[in-house]
Amino acid sequence: ATDALRDDYSGGGGGGKGGAGNLYTTVEAAADISDICIVRDHARDTGLIFAAGEQPKVQSYFIPSLGPAPKWCSFLEGLTEELEEAGLDGSGRGENVTVYEDYKFVTEAELKELNVESLKGTPLLRGYMHGYFMDSKLYSKIKQASDPFAYEEYRKKKLREKIEAKRGSRIAVQKRLPKVNAALAARLLDKKEEAKAKAKGRDAEAEDGGASA
Fold it and tell me: Which chain positions lie within coiled-coil regions (predicted)?
């Protein structure tokens, strides 16, 4: 099968011929391909191809019609089914979407932290490398349930941002103080602010006294 695929590596692409010598498939690679290797699983060829080229990383391609996915990356089968259901099987009926754009990648440590290790082995988690893919909406719900104080933290964060914004405006005012006798001008501004605060306090006391009378 490897010899059949070694048809053309020129122009950064690879091609292969079928049994009758007809073009079977073409691959547009990111760099010129030097050699290819069809991954074998249990003494049979799979649809996964590694291509060594003029770039640091080995390129990988999965062609389902050549064979199944290797056992150690079986998630490729589910990914292919999703592409077919979405109409991205080459017919031109599908929309331009990113695969797994609605999924959140979580590690084993995160599953343990969220206390959802029981989801392993269910359709809600899809194994990938050293972790899993989980539906983004499901992840959000689990995250909110595991952290009931999330809203309180969000509120405090917004409050801190407002305080910082006010401090920034005060600094801007101080920068506009006159260069001559700047210290005196700053003290006068402070006294003015203190006088305003005291006046507000007296007004509030007067209102309370009037209401009690």
Answer: none
